[in-house]
Amino acid sequence: MVVLADTHLRAGSHRGLPPRVRAELEQAEVVLHAGDIVDASVLDELEAYAPTHAVLGNNDHDLVGVLPERLELTLAGVAVGMVHDSGPRRGREARLRRAFPTAELVVFGHSHIPWDGPGLEGQWLLNPGSPTQRRSQPHPTLATVELVEGRIATTHIVAV
Q1: What is the pTM of this model?
Q2: Structure confidence at residue 152 (pLDDT)
Q3: C-beta of residue 69 within 8 angstroms of C-beta of residue 85
């Protein structure tokens, strides 16, 4: 699975998804996008690679009413929760546990800061960063997740 957030791509922009992102997408069975897609054409592009699940970001003005603010789904037997903004770093683990009490994996975005680590009570938290706007990070990033037999087998932050 490929996990993205904060692509911030507009229709007609000279910028597109970087080649490394496209290479990862070609291998994806599922794509998750944690918001700030900005333009629906990006969703169409992602859907051309694999089934795509996305949530609304604070810059997704044209997607209000199209995308949910939060999403809960089950993939390969793993309960997954998705939201764009997880709030401040302080208290994040408890806040996401309360927001998604049954989720084993919680995907979020907004900060452009990759995060791949444990939450509370066995929950795993994943922010893929941004593949197009690195901001204060050394590299633009995405995440990959492998789900096997109803469990999270691997998660990786990938520099693009």
Answers
A1: 0.97
A2: 98
A3: no
